[in-house]
Design brief:
The chain contains 16 helices and 18 strands. The chain is α+β, with helices and mostly antiparallel strands. The two termini are 50 Å apart. Helix 11 packs across helix 12.
């Protein structure tokens, strides 16, 4: 039995690719010398695959190499079912088919990888990982991880739909089946803005791929996160790879409807908590994060023709024993966000508790306590009461998706990286005031006269320096000193990763200062 942690895994990326000469030499020599003789003949009758098997082997071996470089203890999840590989799908640009499973089997037979077969009916895909034999080859490779990327044909616009799964499709009883989200096929003519959105995203992703984005004091570029697995009813952990190959951003629409959603998903910065995001550096520059305060509630107010309040989550009274106003506001914010997206209050309460940290005060709140908070919120904000537990979130996400698109396009056109976490934005700290102006302009474009409050994640250098009375005072000088000293120090491992990336991308490092030139 394998000793690997099978939960420490990620799915095979069917768009992994490289045209680097040393990559091609490595892959095709291995394929021709050892893999091809192990494969049964593919000649004869029948439809020929759109993608030759040696190119499918290339996708597999490159993704294994990249995984090994990122996390030597991790596994790669590979589905063995025919339905997983749709050669003509817009989401499978390289036309990967079940031939890739034959490549897996050949590598197993030759001792290059180990595997733990999955149970597809239980939604457990097969896990594979390299043996010492393959690792030895990886170590001798004359290329680096930065010579490997993704196919430029990858689809960046996704149309999702919830579909029935796991039970009798003839039943009309919703409790007898569950839903899973699957991407739906579409054509560009189905929605006029698709082509323009795709081109904007291609430009944005190209900028991301050529920019170094990392956490300054993170020695190992992996962050462990926990989540509650409702299928097994237990807590599980997963690892977020803080790396330069985990930066792809897509735009996703929901429920098979181009008018719902349109948010930007992807990038490791969306998968980590705010305390880590504060320590992100973009091209070795310190950053600042600014978000819209109470975005969805503010959008709802604007749609109702009412100017949004400055802080909609701050209730007039404290309603929980032993909880101060700041902590109550955090609880109310999380609860209301869940309630906007839920169909019923009960669903909102369940979703709220599932999102809280294990053992936290918020996770132990009862339905009665949450009901008290939600009632107080509705009483305080009657103008938007009908947005609560009415499944309105996906409609509001269409608005915040367009706002974010405006912010991304502005900075991409100026060759400046902005990282998005739905309603918050991270930019180099010298762009703070510019970001505020752009955010204001994006809101005005969508909402006209209505304004939404914007707040940095904590006190920022830009906010202090923008107040001449404060900067000239002893207090201001002291705050600036504290902010400067609180900035994360670049650890040696971060510097090594940065220098390797810069060298691979054609940048150069000053040997005296160790700074990029």
């Amino acid at each position: 039995m394998p000793t690997r942690d099978l939960n420490n895994s990620r799915r095979l990326d069917v768009h992994r690719w490289s045209d680097h000469p040393e990559v091609n030499k490595f892959v095709y020599e291995l394929f021709d010398a050892e893999i091809a003789p192990e494969l049964p003949s593919l000649s004869g009758r029948g439809r020929k695959p759109r993608c030759d098997i040696k190119y499918q082997f290339k996708v597999l071996i490159l993704d294994l190499y990249l995984l090994w470089c990122e996390d030597p203890d991790a596994c790669l999840g590979v589905s063995r079912t025919d339905s997983h590989y749709k050669e003509g799908s817009i989401y499978n640009a390289l036309h990967i088919s079940t031939l890739i499973v034959r490549c897996v089997d050949a590598l197993v037979d030759l001792g290059y990888i180990e595997q733990k077969l999955g149970t597809e009916s239980a939604k457990q895909v097969t896990r594979i990982w390299p043996t010492t034999k393959l690792i030895t080859l990886f170590q001798s490779a004359l290329f680096s991880v930065y010579d490997i990327g993704l196919s430029d044909k990858i689809e960046l616009i996704v149309l999702n739909m919830k579909v029935r799964s796991g039970q009798d499709d003839s039943s009309d009883d919703e409790t007898s089946y569950r839903f899973v989200t699957k991407p739906q096929e579409y054509k560009d003519k189905d929605f006029k803005p698709i082509v323009e959105m795709r081109e904007s995203l291609r430009a944005y992703n190209k900028l991301l791929q050529h920019s170094y984005i990392d956490i300054a004091d993170l020695s190992k570029p992996v962050i462990s996160r926990s989540y509650w697995d409702q299928r097994t009813n237990q807590a599980r952990e997963y690892r977020v790879h803080v790396g330069q190959h985990n930066k792809l951003v897509r735009r996703v629409f929901y429920r098979g409807d181009w008018s719902l959603g349109g948010r930007f998903h992807g990038g490791w910065w969306q998968q980590i908590k705010s305390e880590y995001r504060r320590r992100i550096l973009i091209d070795d520059q310190y950053t600042v994060e600014i978000d819209y305060s109470g975005l969805h509630i503010s959008l709802a107010y604007a749609l109702e023709g009412v100017q949004p309040p400055k802080d909609p989550y701050l209730l007039p009274d404290l309603l929980l024993d032993g909880v101060n106003a700041v902590d109550q506001r955090k609880i109310v914010k999380s609860l209301v966000l869940m309630a906007i997206n839920a169909k019923t209050r009960k669903d909102a309460y369940q979703a709220f508790r599932a999102a809280q940290d294990k053992g936290s005060y918020a996770k132990k709140l009862t339905n009665v306590e949450l009901e008290t908070l939600l009632d107080a919120f509705v009483d305080t904000h009657p103008a938007v009461a009908h947005y609560i537990a009415a499944d309105k979130g996906v409609e509001l996400m269409a608005l915040d998706g367009r706002i974010t698109a405006s912010v991304i396009d502005y900075f991409t056109e100026r060759n400046v990286v902005v990282l998005t976490v739905h309603d918050s934005y991270i930019v180099p700290e010298d762009r703070e005031h510019e970001l505020l102006r752009v955010m204001n302009r994006a809101v005005h474009k969508e909402l006209g006269e209505y304004q939404i409050d914007m707040q940095p994640e904590g006190l920022t250098m830009g906010a202090i320096r923008g107040n001449s009375l404060l900067t000239e005072s002893p207090l201001g000088v002291d705050i600036i000193k504290q902010l400067t000293e609180s900035k994360p120090s670049r650890c040696s491992e971060y510097c090594a990763r940065r220098d390797k990336f810069k060298a691979a991308k054609g940048f150069y490092i000053d040997e005296k200062t160790s700074e990029p030139i």
